[in-house]
Design goal:
Rossmann fold, five-stranded parallel beta sheet, binds BIS(adenosine)-5'-pentaphosphate
Amino acid sequence: MRVIFLGPPGAGKGTQAAKLAAHLGVPRISTGDMLREAIANGTPLGRQVEPLMERGKLVPDDVLIALVGERVREDDCAHGFILDGFPRTVAQAESLASMGLGEVSAWSVFQIEVPREELLRRLSGRRWCPRCQATYHVTSRPPRQEGVCDLDGTSLIQREDDKETVVARRLSDYDQQTAPLVTYYRERANVRRVDGNRSMDAVLEDLKTAVEVPA
Ligand code: AP5
C-alpha cells in the first residue's frame, strides 16, 4: 500500500498520515519531520535547511529527492508507506516516479481540502513537541496538561514557520509550486478529494474506507 497526501499547510496531512499509517501498519514518511529532526540534531543537512524552513521556503528539490530516495529503500518500506509532505513540486513527483516503486496509478493519492480561514486557525493554534514531534492544537486537540506533551512531558512550542508572516509565504508557495501537482496526479492516478474540514475521526473514516477500494 503506497499513499500520497496532497494538501496545503494545515490541511491535516500529518495528523491523518500518522493515524492511517498506524491503521495500515506501514511507515509514515514525513519530510517535514525528517528535516526538523536533522535541525534538532545539528547535522550538516539540518544546518543547510534551517534558514530556509524558518522563513517558510521550500528546501531544494535535489535535497528532498535524495532524502526520500534513501528512505523508501529501507526494509520497513517493503510493503508500503505513506508520504506526507513529498512530493511538493512536479520535479519531485517526476523523480518519485523514476525510483522503481511501481506505477503511481496503483497508489492511493488523497487531496485534502480545507478552506483558507480554517487553515489559518489551525496553523496559528498548532503546538508541537520538539522532542517526539507530536502535534497538538490549543482548542481542536489540546494536550491533557496545557503546554505539555502527553507522550513525554516536554514543553510544547509553536513552530517557527507557524508564525503569521511565515504562514502567508507558505500558503503562497503552496499555491504556486505545489497545487499544480494535483493536475499532474489527476493525469496519472485516481486522485481522491477528501473534505478535510470535518472532525479528525470523520476524515480518518473516509480515508480508511478509500484505501480498501482499489485505485
Ligand atoms: P511540513 O512539515 O511538511 O509542513 P506543511 O506541508 O506545511 O504541513 P503542515 O505540517 O503545516 O500541515 P499538515 O497538513 O501536516 O497539518 P497537521 O496535521 O499538522 O514542511 C515544513 C517545511 O519543511 C516546509 O515549509 C519546507 O520548508 C520543508 N519541506 C518539507 N517537505 C518538503 C518538500 N517535499 N520539498 C521542499 N521543502 C520541504 O494539522 C495542523 C493543525 O490542525 C494541528 O494543530 C492539528 O492538530 C490540527 N488539525 C488537524 N486536523 C484537524 C481537523 N480535522 N480539525 C481540527 N483541527 C485539525
